[in-house]
Amino acid sequence: xxxxxxxxxxxxxxxxxxxxxxxxxxxxxxxxxxxxxxxxxxxxxxxxxxxxxxxxxxxxxxxxxxxxxxxxxxxxxxxxxxxxxxxxxxxxxxxxxxxxxxxxxxxxxxxxxxxxxx
Length: 118
Hints:
The protein is mainly α.
């Protein structure tokens, strides 16, 4: 009996860890995405002896984690494309010496302080 309780505790901790991992990736999920997980969790907590309900929670957690990871990768790809386009545009315009002017490169484009009359 002690072994069975220990096994259940391990399974519940694993579910908690997955849910915590999912909570850290919530920004990459659409609203209402976790509704089905909440239903499965409620059913599982009502009957913790039912292995099928635990499997449903595990599958739903993993599906949501996969979806969040897919959305995060898609966002990274889109964000990376935007940065590359901005860099290419800056190079094509001649760009500014970011090491010299830092974030104020745009100001240097408007007012060239290296000229004696400025």
